[in-house]
Amino acid sequence: MHILNIDSIVDKAFRHERLSLEEALFLTENISIPKLGSIANDLNSVKNHDKVFFNRNIHIEPTNICVNHCLFCSYRRRKGEEGSWEYSVSDMLKIAEKAIQDDPKLTEFHLVGGVHPDRGLAFYLQLIAALRKSFPQVHIKAFTAEEIVQMCKVDEVDLNNGLQQLIDTGLDSMPGGGAEIFKPEIRRKICPDKISGDEWLHVHQLAHEKGIYTNATMLYGHYDTMRDRLEHLEALRTLQDKTGMFNAFIPLKFKAANNKMSHLGEVDIIEDIKTYAISRIFLDNISNIKAYWPMLGIDQALLLLHFGVNDVDGTIADTTKIYSMAGSKKNPSMHSEQLVALIKKNNKIPVERNSVYDELKIYS
Ligand code: V47
Fold first, then answer.
1. Pure H helices in 61-183
2. All structural domains of the chain with their residue ranges
3. Which of 44, 64, 225, 263 makes a 20 to 30 Å CA pair with 134?
4. How many angstroms separate the CA atoms of 349 and 49, rounded?
5. Which residues line ligand 1 (CB under 6 A)?
6. Which residues, 6+ apart, have CB-to-CB distance to 98 below 8 Å?
């Protein structure tokens, strides 16, 4: 059996050589936090030169009515239940119009919601077509793999054809949600109705083959171990080797308020730091590691800039409820000037980007 040695793994990481799962696991178990941070920081600055990306975006959440029963979800409601919503296409156009009035330089609509029982592909095609027509300049990043599989099922359209229709109508890229954790035993327990990890990967591969970028996420900090997280990262790394079309990886920390897993509580900041840093080190083929500030809080997102993170998502403009319903701060919103000042305070270079990471403005 190959005996692992911490010094040689650290040397290998600093030489920017790819680590095996066992080496990465050994590293997280046998190294101090500052040392782990220095490796992650080194790899990040070679790739991203101390630049920290953000964009001007809003989230549009079409509905929180959902057929799935994910135990970690604080957001889902049944049809007709108090607190449920289902926006029409014209409601969503109004949300988009207001956002553009508030910030004419907005570059992205991020659309994700519940898996509605009766809204099929046709409804979502109408929505994308309407947004595309009214806002041809805005990038549409929309729908998780889960949502796309289900909307095709409702309208009995085959997945390949349905995804192509979405792209032809104006879908520019896909967000990374719904990946949760790929390990089948845990996935069956926390999101029993969702597509499997292999199916999630298949939908993203299909999107990549059709020429659109996607993101990837991982829900961590519940029943998962560091080995489970690394297995998840390894599956993403393998797909990225094939396609190269993942734009960003976003670790999502399990938030424990108001859901069926609240009793688990939340992991501490050391676990967060280790997870973000090892993501930077292990995912040698995904350039952007994003700390999504509405979920983590801005202070922690900024701290993680020193542990491999180079992206903090966007201005959001008060438009997402997924995380406030699970215990994060309500009504998240940041002016771009605030984000710029905070990034600079951390001795990093703020860069406004578009959704495919073209640099729009460097605030040096
Ligand atoms: O898939 C739901 C997660 C995801 C909780 O691609 C929870 O740029 C923690 O994927 N605690 C949706 N996480 C959000 C998402 C996302 C967010 C920001 C940027 C991007 C991107 C993608 O939220 C779900 C699920 O994994 N989630 N409930 C919770 N209680």
1. 89-102, 121-134, 145-154, 159-169
2. 51-362
3. 64
4. 9
5. 72-74, 112, 175-178, 180, 215, 217, 219, 250, 252, 254-255, 259, 292, 313, 322, 326
6. none
What pTM value is reported for the model? 0.96
Residue tagged 């930077």 (tokens): 280
Retrieve residue 115's tokens.
């898996």
CA of 177 to the centre of ligand 1 (A): 5
For domain 51-362, give the CATH superfamily. Aldolase class I (3.20.20.70)
Q: For residues 140 and 171, is the Cβ–Cβ distance under 8 A?
A: yes
Ligand 1: distance of its center to the CA of 322 in Å? 7
Cβ(349)–Cβ(364) under 8 Å? Answer: yes
Atom of ligand 1 lying closest to residue 219 CA: 26
For the stretch 267-292, pLDDT in tens is 999 999 999 999 999 999 999 999 99
Give every strand in the sheet of 359-362, ordered side by side: 311-314, 51-55, 349-353, 359-362
Judge contact between 252 and 295, C-beta under 8 A.
yes
Amino acid letter, residue 44: N
Q: Which helix (H) or strand (E) holds 343?
A: helix 336-345
pLDDT digits (tens, 9 = 90+) for 317-341: 655 666 667 776 766 678 888 889 9
